[in-house]
Design brief:
The complex is a heterodimer. Chain A is an alpha+beta fold. Chain A contains 16 helices and 18 strands. In chain A, the strands form two sheets. In chain A, strands 3, 4, 5, 10, 11, 12, 13, 14, 15 and 18 form a ten-stranded mixed beta sheet that branches. In chain A, strands 1, 2, 6, 7, 8, 9, 16 and 17 form an eight-stranded mixed beta sheet that branches. In chain A, helix 4 packs across helix 6 (173-190) and helix 13 runs antiparallel to helix 14 (468-497). In chain B, strand 4 (227-231), helix 9 (240-249) and strand 5 (257-263) form a beta-alpha-beta unit. Chain B is globular and about 55 Å long. The relative contact order of chain B is 0.15. The chains are: A alpha+beta, B alpha/beta. The A-B interface holds A 60, 62, 81, 83-84, 87, 127, 130-132, 134, 215-218, 220, 222-224, 459-464, 467, 469-470 and B 78-80, 87, 90-91, 94-95, 98, 136-137, 139-141, 144, 147-148, 150-152, 173-179, 199-200, 202-206. The complex binds flavin-adenine dinucleotide and S-adenosylmethionine. Flavin-adenine dinucleotide binds next to helix 3, strand 3, strand 10 and helix 13 of chain A.
Chain lengths: 533, 346
């Protein structure tokens, strides 16, 4: 399958700065170390020598998009759909096997299984994908949901329900990528004079800036020369505008020398695709509980599927992906209802080197028992019936899909700028956030939308779209503040819930309940999550 | 300190005003009354002959203006340098041109297809607000289609352009990048700026085929064009009406359009372009403007009425104003300060 992250193998090669997505994600912890030797490489202003290391002629393009992730492919579709931009010769490069994986995914006949990279897309961005871009999404694989039920793991009584009709839509990244890819194929079929060129299975290995004086034949000084992008298949492109949709490790960002600010949360996220005991029969909503080790989120997918993002300590994340799937599934159920003390006990037991089948069975039995007891307590305490548990806790999961577990380091970072001469950054190349508010790709789609309208304006004015001053700066100005606000809110929420400090926990209880009752603040948070401002 | 430099510039300025306007009364005379009588205006040849400077209009460029633009040439393309204001103004006038072409392209097309029935589906021009009643998805689709349809029509147009007084080529390059412009000729009387224009053109491959520059006077220029432009140049020539007459001759009839921009001759213009622009904010190179050469938009309109009563239509006149930090903003008050104008030839 496409782009799965190897769960445990730690690839630590300082030399391969640009690696496949999978290894780069495992590699980022050593980010600062591993990039240092490479910067000199990226900064080099080699006189653009058209037959430098390769004998192939340099290809020329107006827009080169590096990265065929969800950001890159939707941006490409937006560009090719725009009456103002479609005349630009556009090229997209990606390291993965897009031409095989994406059509295959698109032609899956049913939702027989769900993939593990699922994001929540705001209604606004759904409009962008289905309205502006008219992407042939597989709607039977998308689950709209009406709210998120947030609770505090140290504090059962504090909870907040954020209910709102169509708060968001759970969509697989592959669904977005493949529909954008199919759209591009369709557009190419209708426009054979200027189709987008999709160069997949090739990595960008180097980007160089030609020196400003030698760039043209007649010796005129060129203050804004076109960058040369070298691929591992020996080809070189020179491009009017280079758009980095190339994710966190962004070689484009490094080429442009754009600095970033941010940090790792010493927390890893475990994702998994889960099968429920029974499909939810009441509200379709997401569930999020702030455990002292990090938030755990259980989000709805069509039918009896659900997806999980469990943020936790690096050690526990390793443990979680290595457990047998039945043990893992029980642990997820436990995490949403049992006490912190219980969870600590299970973690300890499972971390034991001597853990074996017997202990797994014991633990499963123990969890079942304690959940039973806790449910009964809750029912009695609230003078209620069975439905109380269904109403206030996520539907229990039966099993976890084979091979669907993967882990990612959690980080928050923001590039100082998104633009440089002939360069701009979109999506995770420009920013990344903790997934607790489900904003990552939403910010990326907001970037795409904004960039397209800035380019449209510049193009209708006949400007060189590689100009920072007259064109690209408007994009950065439009997006930086909004993204900064979102990054800030998410980070503050994370800090607030990342502690066991009693005073803070007390305040949190007070806080969640107050927020739950305070229309304005809650409204604000719901707006952030659902993308309305 | 501020006060001192303030009064100094003011004195300098008044001196300049006095010297530059010594021969021309400041407000009383419009640019045409002094030279054209109503009867001669009708017949353009006698009008030309009757003019004292007409003997060698073709090669006439004011030597002061020429040397002024020569010194500016090397920094012409630095969008943060001496010509920043012009770079920013270029954005506003491209918006203006786009708006005019979108609204009046029908005639241009008719002109191009040589009388063959033009196939524009006028139903497409539903006003934008009516789409707001539709759900977003449909609305977006309609808007996309509408845009695409307008563009498709425009794209068929293959327009030709003559840019008179093109300078370093800001407008020429912008127009040349538009897919529906087929060919553009830029002419100017200052060799140094044409050099710069040519050099800069060589930096972008997309410009190679469509764009040609020449040091040439408008009278020496041959051919007729769908569009003739004279941006920020009438205020730099000694005989604006000569230039206008020749320019108009290069506009195709049946829908060709003359675009021009210049500055109203009023106190507001003096204040914004000379006092603020050149002296206080220093965003315009000193000595760029001379109030006496400014022409009121009304004068141009009146003059066209007299000269070409039946063969022209003023499509649009817009004021445009520089707001620091915001750039040039087009507005409806075309009688003050800078303005843009589009005149169509019938
Ligand atoms: C656990 C988790 C949960 C999340 N939940 C949500 C959510 O609910 N809502 C939400 O909006 N977001 C969420 N996100 C964030 C979201 O997944 C990302 O923001 C999104 O995938 C970023 O897309 P992108 O296209 O910018 O970058 P990427 O998906 O990283 O794509 C980068 C692409 O560039 C290519 N590439 C990189 N380098 C090179 C090179 N040198 N040569 C060629 N190609 C290259 C790669 O192959 C890849 O295809 C979540 C993230 C995580 C980790
Ligand atoms: C302020 S610049 C404007 C340049 C360009 N039209 C623009 O707006 O970007 C004025 C230009 O008019 C040119 N010019 C002045 N007198 C001229 C004349 N008589 N014929 C042709 N060009 C002239 C100058 O050389 C100069 O390049």
């Amino acid at each position: 399958m496409f782009r799965r992250v190897p769960p445990l193998k730690r690839i630590n090669k300082a030399s391969s700065n640009i690696s496949t997505l999978g290894s780069s994600i495992v590699n980022v912890i050593n980010h600062s170390k591993s990039t240092t030797p490479l910067l000199s490489n990226y900064y080099s202003t080699i006189a653009a020598n058209e037959n430098n290391s390769s004998t192939l002629p340099v290809k020329s393009t107006d827009i080169l998009i590096v990265g065929g992730g969800p950001a890159g492919l939707t941006l490409a579709a937006a560009i090719k759909l725009s009456p103002n931009l479609k005349h630009f010769k556009t090229t997209l490069v990606d390291a993965g096997n897009l031409s095989e994986n994406l059509p295959k995914f698109h032609n899956l006949s049913s939702s027989a299984y769900m993939t593990n990279r699922v994001v929540s897309i705001t209604p606004q961005n759904m409009d962008f994908l289905t309205g502006d871009l008219n992407l042939p999404l597989q709607f039977n694989r998308i689950q709209p949901f009406d709210g998120i039920y947030v609770s505090d793991g140290l504090n059962d009584t504090s909870r907040m329900t954020m209910d709102r009709e169509s708060m968001g839509n759970m969509v697989e990244l592959l669904n977005i990528q493949s529909s954008a890819y199919m759209k591009l194929l369709e557009l190419n079929a209708n426009n054979n004079t200027n189709p987008i060129e999709i160069a997949d299975n090739c990595k960008v290995v180097d980007i160089v800036k030609p020196s400003t004086t030698n760039a043209t034949a007649n010796g005129v000084e060129n203050t804004n020369p076109w960058p040369y992008v070298k691929l591992d298949n020996g080809e070189t492109y020179k491009t009017r505008l280079l758009i980095g949709c190339d994710g966190f490790q962004s070689p484009v960002r490094k080429y442009a020398g754009i600095e970033t600010r941010g940090w790792f949360y010493n927390e890893w996220g475990v994702v998994a695709t889960m099968k429920l005991e029974y499909p939810p029969f009441n509200h379709i909503r997401g569930w999020q509980r702030f455990l002292p080790t990090g938030p755990i989120a259980h989000l709805p997918l069509p039918g009896d599927w659900a997806t999980l993002v469990w943020s936790t300590t690096p050690e526990l994340s390793k443990l979680l992906v290595s457990l047998p799937s039945n043990v893992f599934s029980k642990l997820v159920n436990a995490a949403f209802i049992l006490e912190d003390g219980d969870m600590q006990y299970y973690y300890r037991k499972l971390s034991d080197a001597a853990v074996d089948k017997r202990i797994f069975d014991e633990i499963i039995e123990d969890i079942d028992y304690r959940i039973e007891v806790k449910s009964q307590q809750l029912i009695n305490k609230n003078n209620s019936d069975m439905y109380y548990v269904d109403e206030n806790y996520p539907p229990p999961i039966k099993d976890t899909l084979e091979k669907s577990r993967a882990r990612f380091p959690m980080k928050m970072f923001h590039a100082d700028t998104y633009v440089a001469p002939r360069v701009c950054l979109v999506g995770d190349a420009a920013h990344a956030t903790h997934p607790l508010a489900g904003q990552g790709l939403n910010m990326g789609l907001g970037d795409s939308k904004s960039l397209v309208s800035v380019l449209e304006k510049a193009s209708s004015r006949g400007l060189d779209i590689g100009s920072v001053d007259l064109c690209l700066n408007d994009y950065w100005k439009d997006r930086y503040g909004t993204n900064m606000m979102l990054l800030g809110v998410v980070d503050k929420l994370h800090k607030l819930y990342g502690t066991r400090n009693e005073v803070v926990v007390g305040l949190r209880q007070w806080g969640l309940n107050v927020v739950n009752n305070l229309g304005d603040v809650k409204e604000f948070m719901m707006n952030v999550v659902s993308g309305r401002k | 300190m501020f006060k001192r430099s303030f009064s100094l510039t003011r004195i300098q300025h008044i001196k300049r005003l006095q010297s530059s306007s010594s021969s021309v009364p400041k407000y009383s005379t419009s640019f045409l009354n002094s030279n054209v009588s109503k009867t001669t205006a009708r017949r353009s040849t006698s009008f030309l002959n009757g003019h004292p400077a007409a003997i060698d209009t073709s090669n006439k460029v004011n030597p002061d203006e020429k040397s002024h633009f020569e010194t500016l040439a090397p920094t012409w393309w630095d969008s943060k340098g001496s010509q920043r204001i012009l770079h920013l103004m270029n954005l506003a006038r491209m918006d203006f041109i786009n708006e005019i072409l979108r609204n009046y392209k029908v005639q241009l097309n008719a002109n191009n297809s040589n009388g063959s029935k033009n196939d524009i589906d006028t139903d497409l021009y539903i006003p934008r607000f009516t789409t707001s009643v539709f759900p977003t998805e449909i609305k977006k689709n309609i808007e996309n289609e509408l845009n695409a349809a307008i563009y498709k029509e425009l794209q068929k147009s293959e327009l030709t352009v003559l840019d008179v007084g093109c300078g370093g080529g800001l407008l020429c390059e912008s127009l040349a990048r538009l897919p529906f412009i087929k060919k553009i000729d830029g002419i100017d009387m200052t060799p140094a700026v044409i050099n710069i224009a040519k050099q800069h053109q060589s930096l972008d491959p997309v410009l190679a085929e469509k764009l040609t520059y020449a040091v040439r006077s408008i009278d020496e220029q041959k051919g007729q064009y769908d569009i003739v432009t004279m941006f920020e140049m009438l205020e730099h020539v000694d005989d604006p009406k000569e230039i206008l007459i020749s320019g108009w001759e290069h506009v195709k009839s049946n829908g060709g359009i003359l675009f021009l921009s210049t500055i109203n001759r009023d106190l507001i213009s003096w204040f914004t372009t000379i006092f603020m622009g050149e002296y206080v904010l220093k965003v315009v190179p000193l000595g760029t403007h001379h109030l006496s050469k400014y022409i009121n938009s009304r004068e141009i309109i009146a003059w066209f009425k007299e000269m070409y009563p039946l063969s022209h239509e003023v499509l649009q006149v817009k004021g445009t104003m520089y707001i620091p930090g915001k750039g040039w903003v087009n507005h409806d008050c075309s009688n003050v300060g800078n303005y843009l104008m589009a005149i169509q030839k019938k």
